[in-house]
Design brief:
A hairpin with a 5-residue loop joins strand 8 and strand 9. This protein is of the alpha+beta class. Bound molecules: alpha-D-galactopyranose (GLA).
Length: about 400
């Protein structure tokens, strides 16, 4: 990702390259040809933040940036994984796969997938895997969900497992929650597995029912800019877990299964039942954010894409003031994008850094990107990375 004008709003990567890198890695490490290559994308979330683990609504879409796994089955029950992120392959067997947390680092996501499949009773084939990725790590674009989904796709097919793709998100989430130990919701895995080109994925996180909502930016003359804030993730894991705990505690006090069960119309009454100001703010974010997702979906259904802008911006304000998960870098990117004419802008993902998205007229994209870059320079922040993206397909076999 770069930081200058026309190059600033770089269209996201050529899909062929990452696949070639995975294949080259496979040949070099293991010799011979992979049996196949499976890809899964990163994601951004158009709107619906910290609503997934509250049984609420989200509207993410899959990115054109992908992770590719070149893989082949082996005869024994062992898994060897190489990634272009690390020099040496990691190898593990059933002992490590069956004990959550035994394999750590990036390979833990792979071991987590083996674990989740075995725990669900599937006979997972041993395999050699080579992983290459265009999804930046640590930018909040779900590089971990992309690895999980691509590995899941590979193992399901190599083993001939009878496991329909609509069950993959829950299994991949379990890998992340219970093997790796990150208490995330189901949004990221759903987006990268069930996403469809030209669409945003409207997901009810309680029922897992999805609806593909047309999100055709080109026809509307629009673009989505994704700004990597480059902000270091400060205490992101602990803060995420704290937000989740606070929401669950609030639901308990309010006597509902989850905050999804509090409607906007009942918000004031609910807030009166909570004694603590911080908890009230957390609840107000989740309840209003769920409604904003529903409102954005309604606008997209009637083709009013530009009109979603103020809801995106309101979502950001809610994350900044009520959920308190933004940092100066993301607030600066949002403010600069809006001042330069974006219809709406918001942080996307878990928070404390990560990426901002901005909805802009396509022909304004370079100017908005420049304005964000200039605002960063003025504040003395490291230059942001900026991409233009459009909704792409979810996990699939490449060839
Ligand atoms: C992270 C988690 C998701 C979701 C978002 C916030 O991306 O992995 O499950 O909770 O944060 O919306």
């Amino acid at each position: 990702m770069t930081g200058r004008t026309a190059a600033t709003a770089t269209p996201a990567a050529t899909p062929g390259d990452v696949a070639a890198r995975a294949t080259a890695g496979f040949r070099q490490r293991y010799g011979g040809q992979p049996a196949g290559r499976w890809a899964a994308p990163g994601r951004v979330n158009l709107i619906g933040e910290h609503t997934d683990y509250n049984d609420g609504f989200v509207l993410p879409f899959a990115l054109p940036l992908r992770t590719v796994v070149a893989a082949a089955a082996r005869d024994d029950e062992r898994w060897t994984v190489w990634s272009e992120l690390s020099a040496d392959p990691v190898e593990f067997g059933p002992a490590e796969a069956d004990e959550p947390g035994q394999v750590t680092g990036w390979a833990g996501y792979v071991a987590g997938v083996v674990w989740t499949l075995r725990a669900a009773g599937y006979a997972v084939p041993g395999a050699r895997l080579a992983v290459a990725s265009d999804v930046p790590v640590g930018s909040g674009l779900s590089s971990s969900a992309a690895v999980e989904a691509a590995v899941l796709a590979a193992l399901v097919e190599l083993g001939g497992l009878d496991l329909p793709a609509d069950r993959w998100p829950r299994l991949a989430q379990r890998a992340e929650n219970d093997y790796v130990g990150a208490p995330t919701g189901i949004m990221d895995q759903s987006a990268v597995i069930r996403g469809r080109a030209g669409h945003a994925l409207f997901l009810d996180c309680r029922t897992e029912v999805v609806e593909q909502i047309p999100f055709d930016l080109d026809t509307a003359g629009l673009a989505v800019l994704v700004v990597d804030s480059r902000a270091p993730h400060r205490h992101a894991d602990g803060e995420y877990a704290a937000r989740r705990a606070s929401c669950e505690e609030a639901a308990r006090v309010l006597g509902v299964p989850a905050l999804r069960d509090v409607a906007v119309a009942d918000l004031d009454a609910a807030l009166r039942k909570l004694s603590d100001g911080e908890t009230r703010r957390r609840v107000r974010h989740v309840v209003t954010e769920n409604q904003r997702v529903l409102d954005v979906v309604e606008l997209l259904r009637t083709g009013r894409v530009r009109d979603t802008g103020p809801l995106l911006t309101a979502s950001h304000a809610s994350m900044r003031d009520d959920f308190e998960i933004t940092v100066p870098e993301v607030d600066t990117a949002v403010d600069a994008a809006l001042a330069a004419g974006a219809y709406g802008a918001r942080m996307t993902g878990g928070g404390f850094g990560g990426c901002v998205l901005a909805l802009v007229d396509a022909d304004r994209a370079p100017a908005v990107a420049d304005a964000v870059t200039a605002a960063y320079a003025e504040r003395g922040f490291a230059a942001p990375g900026i991409l233009t993206v459009r909704p792409a397909a979810g996990a699939a076999r490449l060839d």
